[in-house]
Amino acid sequence: MAKLKMIDHSGTTDKQRCGYVAIIGRPNVGKSTLLNHILGMKLSITSRKPQTTRHQILGVKTVEDIQTIYVDTPGIHQRRGTAINKYMNRAATSLLNDVDIILFVVQAKKWTEEDQAIIEKLHSVKCPVLLIVNKMDILDNKKQLLPLIQDLSVKLDFTEIIPVSALNGINIEILEDKVAALLPENVHFYPGDQVTDRSMRFLASEIIREKLIRELGQELPYTSTVNIDKYDEDENIVRIHATIFVESKGQKAIIIGKKGARIKSIGTKSREDIAKMIESKVYLNLWVKVREGWSNDERALRGLGYSE
Predict the structure, then answer these.
(1) Confidence band (pLDDT; 50, 70, 90) for 70?
(2) Is 46 helix (H, G, I), strand (E, B) or coil?
(3) Pick from 202, 160, 273: which is nearest to 58 by CA?
(4) What is residue 220's DSSP assignment?
(5) 1, pLDDT greater than 70
(6) Burial class for 173, CB neighbours closer than 10 Å (0-12, 13-18, 19+)
(7) Cβ atoms 67, 238 nearer than 8 A
(8) Are 139 and 145 in contact (CB under 8 A)?
(9) Which residues of the chain are in CATH 3.40.50.300 domains?
(10) pLDDT exceeds 60 at position 219
(11) Least enclosed by CB within 10 Å: which of 17, 27, 126, 136?
(12) Do the beta carbons of residue 123 and residue 109 sit within 8 Å?
């Protein structure tokens, strides 16, 4: 997983603020949707299926003297056994003591054992923790908010509790203002026009994986991953060759679909989104290969980009 660059606070000014903000929570509470809305662009892939995010995704937002470096993380979960699940939990929890602020995202009306397990991890952190109650739009009556917030407030000494709708943008500006006020004084760490530290190669693989997840059933996405074999930029077109790895011949057949219809659909949707992101024509060639047991093989994971 990506190691956060440490900010040197020694050269601070009384004008600029800059710091890291971790977005954590159990799977499928809307962490990536929240980051995308804050940035005003799609950086983290999203789907209705849990554990869509597998890596730390860094998103930088600079507005005048405020630079906020958000880190989207995989959902912290209790699903055990495989190396990929252990990797995702490490990616989500390893940065808790290295950031300036933590946004703990939960879902309105749905507190789970996984939420409670995260609370236990947060007892030892020293930075401000903001509880973000997402999906407030699902509440039948806004009068439900006050008792909900009162119930949640006893679980930890939160700096703030902010109800939001990441999907609809409700209270996002309030959240950003609270975060900005808590950021340390510091010179900006990234250029003002930089949005992420991830390469276009990585972002292209994530877009392909998103389309794969959305096309497939509940379990198959957990045993599939995408590797970019070639990413060549010409003057008028970007040529991408990518491989989708699965763990069995049956999974390969599902992805390819009848007469190749499903892989064609995944390829078309991926190419359109990648072209929109990089503002260039894209040629995309997808292959599907079987690599048995890759999701439970530490060496295979490192080879596929799941590195510490």
Answers:
(1) very high
(2) coil
(3) 202
(4) G
(5) no
(6) exposed
(7) no
(8) yes
(9) 9-182
(10) no
(11) 126
(12) no
Supply the pLDDT for residue 102: 96
- pLDDT value at position 220? 64
Mean pLDDT of 271-294: 94
Higher pLDDT, 155 or 142: 155
In this structure, are residues 35 and 22 in contact, taking their beta carbons and an 8 Å threshold? no
Does residue 197 have a pLDDT over 60? yes
What b/e sequence results for 125-146 when a residue is b if at least 16 CB atoms lie within 10 Å of its CB, and e otherwise? eebbbbbbbbbbeebeeeeeee
Local confidence band at 221 (pLDDT 50, 70, 90 cut-offs): low
Pick the CATH number of 200-303 from 3.10.129.10, 3.40.50.1100, 3.30.300.20, 3.40.50.200: 3.30.300.20
Joined together, the tokens standing for residue 153 give: 């407030």
d(CA 55, CA 91): 6
Contact 288, 263 (CB under 8 A): yes
